[in-house]
Automatic annotation (TrEMBL):
SUPFAM superfamilies referenced in this protein's UniProt entry, alphabetically: Fe-S cluster assembly (FSCA) domain-like (SSF117916), SufE/NifU (SSF82649)
Sequence similarity: Belongs to the NifU family.
Gene name of the record: nifU
Functional note: May be involved in the formation or repair of [Fe-S] clusters present in iron-sulfur proteins.
Name of this protein: Nitrogen fixation protein NifU
Length: 285
């Protein structure tokens, strides 16, 4: 049995905004019954066609797919289309208090449906990740079983900082059927990691205390917490005193036998991206 948060269970048992919207301004459909997951998202805009006033969904899938779709419709209400496009699959999972990594593809499917709906409404090219639907494919098909392109997979790998083929399968299903594309997925991971390393800003030689604190917060927010979310955990920054950083683990990470290893991982990341002499201490906050 998967370890679901109470919020995931609540959105599965009492999903919000189920159904369709007549005369919807935008509709995004991703997945297919052949893949085992499908989602259709309906969006209604206000009179000025600026903000989303209503969002509904129909889905065929597991409890995580229902909960992710329900969460997404709640999250995008009141947003402009550009603001809605800024919603990431990580934010959908975080809204639910985290999803098991094996179910992260459900949050990715929600983000996909939103992108497809808005692209179709705006009359632009439709993103090419919608699992076998008849849209122009951008890039080369990597996973023939689920019709996923290299462009889509690279985007998910980059946005979620994925490092293994198994993670890519959990987030997209790619490689989860015949497994024939696993070598190509590993090549894409290496390619994305290479590009990210080139783009990583080099550590400044000397940091003011204020800048050091800002960098520590940025690294925790962008590099560390998303990895913990994927396992249903989280951390909170408690204090920064000079080079000493105090953190407390939350959710699945709290009291976990491996949290000592995790705090070492946090320290390693901070030393790599902020300053070589940073120490991380885990506290019970």
């Amino acid at each position: 049995m998967w370890d679901y948060t109470d919020k995931v269970k609540e959105h599965f048992l009492n999903p919000r905004n189920v159904g369709e919207i007549e005369n919807a301004d935008a509709v995004g459909e991703v997945g297919s019954l052949a893949c085992g997951d499908a989602l259709k998202l309906f969006i209604k805009l206000d009179e000025n066609k600026e903000r989303i006033v209503e969002a509904k969904f129909q889905t065929f899938g597991c409890g995580s797919a229902i909960a992710s779709s329900s969460a997404l419709t709640e999250m995008i209400k009141g947003k402009t289309l550009d603001e809605a496009l800024g919603v990431t699959n990580k934010e959908i999972a975080d809204f639910l208090g985290g999803l098991p990594e094996e179910k992260m593809h459900c949050s990715v499917m929600g983000q996909e449906a939103l992108e497809v709906a808005i692209a179709k409404y705006r009359g632009g090219p439709v993103p090419s990740h919608d699992h076998g639907h008849e849209h122009e494919q951008e890039g080369e098909i990597v996973c023939k079983c689920f019709g996923l392109t290299d462009g889509f997979l690279k985007k998910v790998i980059s946005q979620n900082r994925l490092h293994t083929a198994e993670q890519v399968t959990h987030f997209t299903k790619a490689g989860g059927a015949c497994g024939g594309c696993i070598p190509k997925i590993k090549e894409l991971i290496a390619e994305v990691l290479g590009e990210q390393q080139k783009q990583e800003p080099k550590k400044p030689e000397r940091l003011t205390n204020l800048r050091k604190m800002q960098l520590i917060q940025e690294v925790l927010e962008n590099e560390v917490r998303p990895l913990l979310w994927a396992d249903g955990g989280d951390l909170e920054l408690i204090d920064i005193a000079g080079n000493a950083v105090q953190i407390a683990f939350r959710k699945a990470c709290a009291g976990c036998a491996s949290s000592g290893y995790t705090s070492r991982f946090v320290e390693q990341k901070l030393r790599e991206l902020v300053a070589d002499d940073i120490t991380v201490e885990e506290v019970q906050g």
